[in-house]
Amino acid sequence: MVSAPVLSTIGYEGTTITAVLDALRAARVSLLIDVRAVAASRKPGFSKRLLEAGLAERGIGYLHLQGLGTPKEGRQAVRAGHPERMRTIYAEHMRSDRAQAELARAKEEGLRTNVCLLCFERDHRTCHRAIVAELIAAETGQPIAHLLP
Prior knowledge:
- By secondary structure, the chain is of the alpha/beta class.
- The protein has one domain (about 5-145).
- The protein has six helices and five strands.
- Strands 3-2-4-1-5 form a five-stranded parallel beta sheet, with helices on both faces.
């Protein structure tokens, strides 16, 4: 029996696009799944189109699953230093049909190839991408690797 690929996560806070792309390549990521509600950034290279182009240059696919993003109230809770409140808000959000459909898509992709979930926060413990990874791994049994570029 072939084991499932590793499920990676990465945050780009405090780093550069080059460092993130290098970390993805080193981890042999084939598909980056952007789990931001808003795929825009003031950091050079991390807005949706630029990110997708940079990934393509390295042979890495891109998929934006906006429905897996944190609602505005959850993002505000993290910025205010209350990641535990974000977890409650995010758990409620994940009950929606769209979030469940996009979670199923992420699971499907993660079983086919090496995927990495991307969001902003450097520390996965304060970011919803860790929750998404845990939800996927709970069903698939995949190991999770939190990359630090």
